[in-house]
Amino acid sequence: MADEKLASIPTGLAGDNTLVSAVRNTYLSFLERRDALGLSNPGTFENINREVSRDVFLTNFMFTGLRAEWNKPISNNPIFQLSHALSMGAQGMSPYTFSALYGSDRVFLQGTMESDASLVARSNYRWNDSLITKTNAQIQSGQSMLSIENDYTGKDFTASLKGMNPSVIEGGLKGIFIASYLQSVTPSLALGLEAVWQRVAMNSSPEALLSYGARYKGSDWIASLQMQTEGPQGSAMSSSYWRKLTDKVSVGTDLSLQFAPGLSGQGGLMGGSLQKEGSASAGAKYEFRASTFRAQVDSKVLFAMQRKHADRSSKKQQAKVGVSVSVEAMSEELMEQMEKGTAQSPSVPF
Prior knowledge:
Layout: H1 2-8, H2 18-36, H3 50-56, E1 65-76, E2 79-88, E3 96-103, E4 107-114, E5 119-126, E6 131-140, E7 143-153, E8 157-167, E9 174-184, E10 189-199, E11 207-217, E12 221-231, E13 234-244, E14 249-261, H4 268-271, E15 274-287, E16 292-298, E17 302-305, E18 308-311, E19 320-328, H5 332-340
Parallel strand pairs: 1-19
Antiparallel strand pairs: 1-2, 2-3, 3-4, 4-5, 5-6, 6-7, 7-8, 8-9, 9-10, 10-11, 11-12, 12-13, 13-14, 14-15, 15-16, 16-17, 17-18, 18-19
Helix pairs in contact: 1-2
């Protein structure tokens, strides 16, 4: 690897210059030692605890009411799929949703239209093996949102730059801007940081936050820690732990603590008091041959089971149930290719 990078450095620039040659040799020595460590890409800072939050916990799977989905794959390479969804009694879900998806090695496009005229459009473009640009536009209830994100994936690091509703038409810069970097320092340990700068309106002062993160990967477990420096809403700390018990069973826990300044007249900043809030969650995931079972319990006494959950508190008791049916229909030719293993899917830049 270092030899390839050595060949890419113009030797003519160095010539007989001893200083340039010394810098060049030092840099190549650093690359050789870096390659010898065998470091791998740690993922993004945003997904530093993805095994717990996205895989085990039910955050993306819980809803109430009834929901039915019908998916129609048109082709496998490039990927092209249409889907329809109907829902009843589901909070935050439109009665009808239509979506279309297209994916190739370089491009990913997805559009969703709901019965209340809400529109969501996503597009990803892979410039090369390392750089991907992601855009997301939403129009809902008369409000709009636009985000543009660039992810650079190196051999042992990931750098991201994201802007949400950026604008300069009012005489200055406003919006939300997030920059993050996650670097593997050993085969098991990765360290990173994230900086957030935001200004809601030109007549308001900008705000800035800085977060630090660490991720440690063992043979069958992963632990992560995130710390947010003190800002207008105080400081926060979050830790998570994921472990794979068997090939089909995995468990995860998450602990979050938040420290906010006390209110004026109640010990406030002058008194140095802090309002402390914490939450803890634990979950498990079991994969059957053709289905997946998930369960989750948190400090609010929430018990969740795949797509059914009940929420009980000390003041009142409630029961909420959600049932979903998903049907995938594909042509006989495409199904035959999938069964024979001859259908090759592209590497879509999700």
